[in-house]
Amino acid sequence: MSSLPPDVLSRTAREHMAQPYRAAVPPAIADLEVRLPRATAAAAEEASVLIRDFDAEVGGDVAPFAAILLRSESASSSQIENLTSGAKQIALAELGEEAKRNAAQIVGNVHAMQAAIRLSEALDAPAILEMHRTLMGATEPEIAGRWRTQQVWIGGGGYSPHRAAFVPPHADRVEAAIDDLVAFAGREDVPALQHAAIAHAQFETIHPFPDGNGRTGRALIHALLRRRALTRSVTVPVSAGLLVDTHGYFEALTAIRQGDPAPIVDAMAQASVDAVANGRRLVGDLRDVRAGWAAALTARSDSSVWPLMDLVLRQPVVNTAVVQHELGISHTNAMKAIGRLVEAGALVEVGGRRRSILWQSGAVLGALDAFAARAGRRQLGAL
């Protein structure tokens, strides 16, 4: 449907809009026989081994790093949609401080990823709606968690699907197509990474929401990887790998719509390789940061300063309320622990936007921003 009033469109445009257009009719995939070239299947298996190994490596430090990697994946997925924000703005938005709109939308994506992991064992239509509801609820509540009821399109003019690069199925077909996708997602006979790649591509083809399809669809990848136990502890930041070649990623989505699933599986396999390389660097940087803090501190083993270090790794901007809640300690003890990290150079005091007192870790924020800067650049020799 047109997003512009008819009286502001030219006569030619109005005549063009009156013509029929073609919308996709996605083929059913519930019983799809997945056939891939040998090289594609091998690449997917090699990437799967890397994912399993990385998940096991980081799993021992799951308390800080699971949250860090999930947030990094959410930021990268948002960046594919041209929603970018620095680590500090994201941290402020998570605290409920005033932050830029992009940061608030990225926090919504964090919540969608969390919902995807939480709901991975029961991956059905209500679960997909819940992922979208948590993604869009704070910024576009009128569409959050609701299947679209109008035609949408990708590319072309802003007022008509006639010149679009791709026109997803008519809204009347959405729910049946989602049911078919859910049936495919419930299978166990397709290797996990191939399974996630094809399910994601089918979701993007259905495009079941007015907005937020890309971010919800990439959350679906992680729900499937967790359900199939390819990941058990952490979220591998696959979207950071997809940023290496977004043009190739979008071309791969086009290819599967034309009947060839190999390019999207190839893209997901390479993205996973790049994601593991970047993720390992991030975890290594943060382990170095934590080791530096520990070397500068002398405290009893039961001191609150030790769990506070892990909290700051996953939440690099804190206030006393967060420290009290997360560590289960009094305001006095929270202030003492914060003071110890300030003395060690781990935290510095900054002003909150609501006249609150905040403390931030420049080292952690720097490591997160460095991860984001590397996303989209292949990390040669990092494995």
TrEMBL record:
Q: Which residues bind ATP?
A: D211, G212, N213, G214, R215, T216, G217, R218
Q: Which InterPro entries match?
A: Fido (IPR003812), Fido-like_dom_sf (IPR036597), Fido_containing (IPR040198)
Quote the PANTHER family the UniProt record gives: FIDO DOMAIN-CONTAINING PROTEIN (PTHR13504:SF38), FIDO DOMAIN-CONTAINING PROTEIN DDB_G0283145 (PTHR13504)
Query: Which SUPFAM superfamilies does the entry link to?
Result: Fic-like
* Pfam families linked: Fic
Name of the protein in question: Fic family protein
Q: Where is the active site?
A: H207
